[in-house]
Amino acid sequence: MNKKRWTALAVVSALVFAVATTGSSATAAGVGKDKAIDKKLKQGAVAGKIAADSKGNEKISWNEKKGVPNFVSGKVSAKKLNNASDAVAILEENKDLFDMSSAADELKLSVQSTDNLNTKMFKFQQTFNGVPVFGNELILHADKNGDASSINGYFDPEVKAKGLNTKAKVSSADALKAAKKDTGLTNVKNFNIEKSDLYIYQTQDSAYHLAYLVELSTLENNAPAYWDVFVDAHDGSVLNKIDKVEFAAAVGSGKGVLGDTKSINTESVTGTYNLRDITKPMYSTGGKIETYTAKNGSTTPGTLLTDTDNVWTDPAAVDAHVYAGVVYDYYYNKLGRNSFDNAGGTMKQTVHYSTNYNNAFWDGTQMVYGDGDGSTFIAFSGGLDVVGHEISHGVTERTANLTYSYQSGALNESWSDVMGNLIENKADNNWLVGEDIYTPGTAGDALRSMSSPSAYGDPENMSQYVNTSSDNGGVHTNSGIPNKAFYNFVTTAGVTRDNAGKVWYRALTQYMTASSQFIDARNATIQAATDLFGAGSTEVTAVTNAWTNVGVVPSVPTPGDQYEPNDSQSSAYGPITSGTAYSGTISSASDVDWFKFTTAASGSISLSLSNLPKDYDLYFYDAAGTQLGKSINGSTTAESISYTAAAAGTFYAKVIGYNGATSASSYSLTATYPTSAPVGNWYYETKAFDTPHPYTNSYTGAVHSYTKAGATKVGLHFSRFETESGYDFVKIKDKTGTVKNTYSGTQAAFWVYVDGDTVSSQLTSDYSVTAWGYSIDQVAYFSATPLATENVSPVYPIQGK
């Protein structure tokens, strides 16, 4: 039988209300017959719990390709998050949301920390059979009260389904040889970095491979190289390679010396001075700032620079040394970071690399500066923003470790541009990148502009995004978009440069991962601003608008959707009128539409979501944010919820796209509810109806009907309810035979009500797996006066189908 479409699950109660998705009392647990159904039911249950616990103020952003979230904020658990064990338990609690089998088996803790806001961060690497999955990490956060407040990052549920053989046939040594051959480094003898680690790697054609990530860094033979090479661990072929050294030249790393006089921190030893700064806090653990010269060769770090009278005459060395100190001071004093690795690591830089070398770069261990050719560039160490940019690559590498390609690579470049600008902090900030060292004979030009990227041919809005495979997917070009977003943010009235820097740094170190895209950067910076300054702060509003203005948006209202912004319970559109159809759109993976209405009395409420262009779901809440019902049919099947309220009140409807489904076409939402108070009371009687316990397979029957002549409403109370979730259903009908509610799964005791004087229930099961069934122990009717006439009649089941 076809299981791709299933009936809505609604939870209805006027006197008693509770919901459970599983129950130990069931005699037979449900099994997965259709993975799409099971996944949706499980994800809906977790998302519904988060929504209820968050009082409707949760935010879920979806990874449409994988069908799982990439950012969830709200109350993600009732448990306190104090340590790694708690973190694993909370991720296990939310595993169904990510289509995860076991958090303990599929995730490995890689980083945990507590920051100066007393918030905790736990970063987990996804694994398969113990092998890390490249670019896939989940980060769990706790707020200052110890409450689990967000889960973000990338998790790929498809990996385990592929059943990839994780036993390598190629050795690590052979992978290194293959990588060296492919990058032309076979004859290199001295590597700064030379290592090979095993990963699960997905190529551009979506195929999964067991692969070695080979990292190679060398400056031998005047040929600087810093590569990530992916080598298939089964056949030794090179799957992909990423050149991580070219970024410096592209961003103008290395600027000329301008002739200004500076104070320099050096180390005094017997008879000489070393260009070594031992005044920084990192010195307490052995860290220093050291400046070397390659003497126009390629050996690094080269020779430590010395001087006999402490009057230094090498401008490139002076700038490299002093500016490294400025960079250290900014990170330490403004952001609380102790050196590029946050562990007080020695900061080395080498000047005079090669001859007329138009480049400067971070090689994975230190900074290296060329002298420039005197025409296109002058000495690269002369630009403070360049030095800040390059050292910030080291910071990124040891935090988010943004993959240096496409959008994540553009974010890598942009974050270095931002930090370089903040560190440079010119009084007359012109928002240019590399202006001090680029084309000394031409005044006023630069490599890039953060305030106007388009002036230098770079995009500044997603509508201008450049799709290219060159330059690692346009990492230098498309960085203009997040650069403009930062410019928009930091120049907003009321936002200081220091606070802007704190937001960008916190987003990088606390929320971004190797695979972060522009939308993830938006989510990360908004969350960081919320952490630092509060949800209603100037900073949160400013950073949200900053990304929106460059076209990086989770929800762009489609023309004609007059109800936006209605993306939260607090901003719900309404009150909507009973019986009126409202047409809205779900325009992005993160768009959520909320509507509200107020009833005049107790009674029946009906919600209908129809004309669906994609797979949309419907949820129903009370004023406190408690979920009262949901309808999660498959595909474009219409959704409906019926509910009988015990009293007048304000209620909310929420429309979402399942797994980030979106469309420019509109849906139709209608709410029908009491607009005037009925006259009368509820009266209750004890009656008993039961299905067989357990019921059988292929079962149609157990029709139970209750009629109270003269009543305006009637109801049934289910004291126990257990069916195979998603496959076996109980339909509730009114006097005309119209289905008013459908239930499945395990529910706590609840009432159902219909208008009129007759209500009936009927159980149907499919061809396999059964459960206990249901038991009804009470009936009720609504009338102006007590009624004597009644008709309670079980209709005996018809066996088989």
TrEMBL record:
InterPro entries: FTP_domain (IPR011096), PepSY (IPR025711), Peptidase_C_arc/bac (IPR007280), Peptidase_M4 (IPR023612), Peptidase_M4/M1_CTD_sf (IPR027268), Peptidase_M4_C_domain (IPR001570), Peptidase_M4_domain (IPR013856), Sperma_CUB_dom_sf (IPR035914). Residues 591-655 form the Peptidase C-terminal archaeal/bacterial domain. Belongs to the peptidase M4 family. Residues 1-28 form the signal peptide. Keywords: Hydrolase, Metal-binding, Metalloprotease, Protease, Signal, Zinc, Zymogen. Residues 252-397 form the Peptidase M4 domain. It comes from the Bacteria. Residues 105-153 form the FTP domain. Its cofactor is Zn(2+). This is M4 family metallopeptidase. Residues 169-240 form the PepSY domain. Residues 400-552 form the Peptidase M4 C-terminal domain. It holds the Pfam family FTP. It comes from Tumebacillus amylolyticus.
